[in-house]
Amino acid sequence: MERTIKYWLKDKSVVRFNQIGFKTKYYGTDGGGLGKFKDRLEMMKNGSIAINAAYPDITKIKIRKNGMYEIVFKNVKSVPTSKEKEPIVFMPKLDESLFDNLLKLLKNHSVKMLDRKSSRLNFGRHRSEQYGYVKARYSGEVGLSYASKNKFHIYDEIIKIGEQICPFKFSTIQLNNNVICPKHIDSANVGSSLLVSFGDYTGCNIVIEGNMYDARHRPIMFNGSQREHWNTNDLEGNKYSLVFYTNNF
């Protein structure tokens, strides 16, 4: 459903065959690889709420008699222009214990220091690592990052967290440690990103187009390629943050 929305926003039209699909029991009591129906209800509810929050002018939520949430399209008569920005979506606050295992792993792991030459413009020296799929700088080949392959225990834990909190499919995750981001946009990203911070710290809030938000244990979803964002320079303590996004390979 979200892929259809993104094609429609990009191309201004889309053909969707709603009555064509695989012959299977999508909502049977025994879900096979997807799990049983009752086990999927909460996931479908959270996914529907997240998509509706991200695209309120295009979608609405339908609740079936069996309690299943699903997204349906509104009868939209006008097509949004490419200048319209995707909304900022605030997810429910998380139990901080969700990050306990990752914090234990990071306690004995120093996040890589990037120097001025290897880092993004105006970032200076900072500690940051990419996990998931990235494009090699010189060959242009797409594959798992160095950190993903050599620190797979950390990568696995990050993926577990992402699968629980991220309502969209992501290709890449940025792990930052005590990074105070200057004003920038993420021009290489596609669609919305999800940011969440954790650790024993105060300050260093995220500012999106002049409005300040606290992402500590509370995921914030926004399109970083559309909205300029940065951090407040008042960090005290040890802060980690994860950014889940789709790279423009």
Describe the structure.
This protein has helices at 2-11, 37-54, 100-107, 146-150, 152-165, and strands at 59-63, 69-73, 89-90, 113-114, 126-135, 142-144, 172-177, 189-202, 206-208, 211-213, 220-222, 229-231, 236-247. The protein has two domains: 2-73, no CATH class; 89-247, Double-stranded beta-helix. Strands 3, 4, 5, 6, 7, 8, 11 and 13 form an eight-stranded antiparallel sheet that branches. Strand 1 and strand 2 form a beta hairpin. Helix 3 packs antiparallel against helix 5. It is globular, with a radius of gyration of 20 Å. It has five helices and 13 strands. The protein is of the alpha+beta class and 249 residues long.
What's the CATH architecture name of the largest domain? 4-Layer Sandwich
Relative strand content: 25-35%
Global geometry: globular
Order of helices and strands: HHEEEHEEEHHEEEEEEE
| CATH class category label of the largest domain | Alpha Beta
User: In percent, how helical is the residue content?
Assistant: 10-25%
Rg, rounded, reads 20 Å
